Structure formats: C-alpha cells, structure tokens
Amino acid sequence: MRTVSYTDLKNRFTSAIGVDSLLTAEETAFKRSLNDRVRGAWTRSKWPELTDVVEKTVAAVADPPFDKAVRIDNASDLFDVFSVWNKNPFTEVSAVQRSFSLVNGYLVLPAENSDTTVFVVGSTVPASDYGDGTTTLPQFMERFLLSAGVADWYRADGQNDKAAAEEVRAENYLLDEIDRAERLQSQNKIVITQYQAPWPTLLVTQTTV
After folding, report:
1. DSSP helix/strand/coil, 177
2. How many whole angstroms separate alpha carbon 175 and alpha carbon 177?
3. Which of 27, 30, 110, 131 is least buried, going by the fewest C-beta atoms within 10 A?
4. What count of other Cβ atoms lies within 10 Å of the Cβ of residue 121?
C-alpha cells in the first residue's frame, strides 16, 4: 500500500492554515483529529488497500454459547469481516464461501459447519496512533485527511462557515476515493447468476406471414 508520513501531512496542514509551525496544543488537536478521521474513513468502504485474508481457527465457545465460532473483537489482524471461506479464495480454485453471523464480538458459523479453520477476507486493523514518527498513513486518504483536519481547525477557531465549506470538500474527496474503490473492485456491479434448467424446455418459434 502506498503511504504518506505524519510529518508530510502535518507540513501540508500548516501550509494550508497559513502558519509556519504549530503550537503544542494545536498539534495535539491535529493528532486527535487525524486519528479520529482515519478511524471514521477506515470503515466507509471495502478499501482494496486495506483488504487482507487471514486464517482463523474455529472452536466452541462457552460464554456466549457458540458451537462454531472465532473471536474477532480483539483480533490484531482483522477489523471488519467481508466474507468467509473454507480455503484461501485467492489461491484455491475449490474454495467455497461460508455463511456466518457476527454476534457479540464473534464470527459464528452454522452448527452444521465442519470446518476447523476458515479464511476470512476483511479489513486490516488501523494503528492505535498516527502521530509522531508514523509513516503508514494510507495515501488514498491524504486529501480527505488534510481537508478534514483544516475543517476541525477552523471549527475550533470559531470560523464555522469556513469549517463547513472545508468539511464539504473533505467529504467530496472521500466520496471520490469510494467511487474509485467501487470501480476497481466492481463493487457496484449487479451480478446475475444463471442456472441451467434441470428439465428439457420447449423451444417455441413464431413465423409471421
């Protein structure tokens, strides 16, 4: 994944608000805004750059009582779940997608499922802090994070009209990236699956005289 550093984003931010450097309180507010905005954008789409596949062990759980489940609310390698498979769908042509439910922090499989491990396609986990020294900010979020940070700065300074205008700009940047992700993944394409009829069908022809 292409990334940008916290330092580069902060430098663009200071230029955008017209100052040479940030006071300690201003930088603290910028970091807080940055972390909040990253987490908000993380779940807005099935971002290709943030998608991964991880193998998880299926086990019985006593409390809550699940016969086939995987705990995911404390996972360090999985945030949102998109799909579940019996094999890695990117390497195995025989992989079969499994039905599942998300209940109380667990990925729960039907009781009749016999898999001992599953492969989960989902989003990676965001960092706990994107402050000093960070070099892993997703590049596709850069324009959104910059405008959102400027909007928060204007709002804190009481410049609500400028904040509202910058908020609209930030949202448009994010929508542009969501549209890009959907086009790349064909996520907005309607897929129609056709099945062959199990019985012979009559072919009716009409001749116009």
Report:
1. helix
2. 5
3. 110
4. 19
Rounded to an integer, what distance in angstroms lies between the CA atom of residue 135 and that of residue 118?
32
Question: CA–CA separation, 136 vs 164, rounded Å?
Answer: 28
**What is the C-alpha separation between 51 and 135, in angstroms, rounded?**
19
**What does the pLDDT look like over 149-201, one tens digit per residue?**
999 999 999 999 999 999 999 999 999 999 999 998 876 555 555 555 555 55
DSSP string, 140-176: GGHHHHHHHHHHHHHHHTT-HHHHHHHHHHHHHHHHH
Sequence-ordered list of residues with C-beta below 8 angstroms from that of 5, at least 6 positions apart, any chain? 134, 135, 137
Distance, in Å, from the CA atom of 180 to the CA atom of 109, rounded to the nearest integer, reads 33
Q: Burial level of 209, CB count in 10 A (0-12/13-18/19+)? A: exposed
Q: How distant, in Å, are the alpha carbons of 29, 116, 173, 203 from that of 25?
A: 6, 51, 27, 77
* Cβ atoms 70, 76 nearer than 8 A: no
Q: What is the pTM of this model?
A: 0.84
Closest CA to 123 of 151, 71, 162, 81: 81
Number of H helices, E strands in the chain: 4, 10
